[in-house]
């Protein structure tokens, strides 16, 4: 952090660059279908706006490139009035460079999509970037969420497919929020897995942001898993995303599977 930047008085920024990175543990990446699609954004109009070309904008623009991707749960606090709280979560299988690229894309895109909004959120396949005017560390965000389902329906026994999907995601939830997890370890609040379904394979992933406690990760995942029937009934794939936790399942490999 440059000291000239830190010494600016009026502006205050807290960054939680929460990046769960899997350091090794990569299984087969054979037919992995990896993209970084834009998914959704929300402009939080109630949090007000800032002036173009003003100090808030300049400071935020200077700050984003300084977010340290390599430090897990990194928190940087600037003191002052005009606070911006920035939270970044990359998907658990993102490399440092992929996470950085996602952050840069997300920041430039959210400026275009929510010009001058102080509160704004944008989701991509590989990351979610949240910029707010207040501090939400360790809290579950129940307000900002959405789901996407695969357009294709499963053929055959829908009820059994739904049950297997629920069981896989539930198992991953328990893995991600297991008491044995500690913040510095890989797979903290993150889990991937697969299951065979006759001739097909089902792939799943769950993740919470790194500021949540293990307990709250499980609370968050329980909350979104309860949305499964609404979002994904009989669908070949689906995901539910908030700014605190998310899940996804598909019948094709969309994530690097970890081997524990
Ligand atoms: C990759 O994803 C696209 C879009 O979801 C799909 O049409 C395509 O078949 C996938 N490819 C593989 C190899 O799974
Ligand atoms: C758990 O989440 C609630 C609701 O967001 C929050 O008020 C509480 O402080 C969190 N607990 C811990 C231990 O982080």
Automatic annotation (TrEMBL):
Keywords: Repeat, Secreted, Signal. The gene is LOC104748412. Belongs to the cysteine-rich repeat secretory protein family. The keyword Iron does not apply. It comes from the Eukaryota. This is Cysteine-rich repeat secretory protein 23. It is found in: Secreted. Transmembrane segments: none annotated. Residues 1-28 form the signal peptide. It comes from Camelina sativa. CDD domains: Gnk2-like.
